[in-house]
Design goal:
By secondary structure, this protein is mostly helical. The chain has a domain at 15-71. Helices cover 50% and strands 0% of the residues.
Length: 86
């Protein structure tokens, strides 16, 4: 019953291509670790693990996390620049 813990809020919305790419990268990272039978990057290196799993730079992970941590203490609020349609 692995699929039962799926968050239903995301089941009914379309994912953007970048979101799909991140999900694929994380899945690939997890499968690599499973095949290896051990962590690829030590668990104590959270920034490096996150960067590798999401296929972005460590600096990007640091920037996102520090910005979110400074903005709020409880629930992070994620936003991105919106393109205006004319």
């Amino acid at each position: 019953m692995e699929g039962e813990y799926l968050v239903h809020a995301t089941c009914h919305r379309n994912l953007h291509s970048r979101e799909k790419e991140v999900i694929y990268s994380i899945n690939k990272f997890c499968l690599e670790e499973k095949a290896k039978g051990a962590p690829i990057i030590d668990f104590s290196k959270a920034i490096a693990r996150t960067a590798r799993a999401t296929n972005v730079s460590e600096r990007t992970v640091q920037r996102i996390c520090s910005g979110i941590n400074q903005a709020c203490e409880t629930q992070p609020a994620f936003s991105s620049s919106q393109k205006s349609i004319q």
